[in-house]
Amino acid sequence: QLQLVESGGGSVQPGGSLRLSCVAPGFTLNYYNIAWFRQAPGKEREGVSCISDDGVRASYADSVKGRFTISRDNAKNTVYLQMNSLSPEDTAIYYCKARSYWGQGTQVTVSS
After folding, report:
1. What is the per-residue pLDDT for 1?
2. Given 17, 37, 56, 70, which is the most exposed site by the fewest CB atoms within 10 A?
3. How far is CA 9 from the centre of its chain?
């Protein structure tokens, strides 16, 4: 069974940056479209960004366009989410998803 593991979360001040990573130990992610979701306290989980298996196509939620960049390094079997110009509204648990499989999430907190 595919297991996804996110990392890279943490606490940053507004305007700061973080880079999240998603890996699948023992599996190759190269065959999967990968999506990033997030869930803030008291809110529903929402899609943030997704990338095709070959890395050619990517899409973003309007709320993160121009600030977040999704990418993948299939040689390293890793998908990234570069997050810049972070604001308190970006505070959430961030999850990566491949087909019906979810990771356990990584916490991102943006606060002064």
Report:
1. 84
2. 56
3. 10
State pLDDT tens for residues 4-35: 999 999 999 999 999 999 999 988 898 999 99
Distance of CA 43 to the CA centre of its chain: 17
For residues 31 and 47, give the distance between their C-alpha atoms in angstroms, rounded to a whole number: 20
Q: What is the CA angle 34-94-85, rounded to 5?
A: 100
Beta bridge partners of 64: none
51 strand-pairing partners? 34, 58
Check: CB of residue 60 under 8 Å from CB of residue 47.
Answer: no
- Residue type at position 44: E
Measured CA angle at 106 (ends 104, 112), to 5 deg: 155
Q: What's the token pair of residue 74?
A: 């299939």
Distance, CA of 37 to CA of 105 (rounded, Å): 9
Q: Which residue matches tokens 């973003």?
A: 60
How many whole angstroms separate alpha carbon 112 and alpha carbon 23? Answer: 30
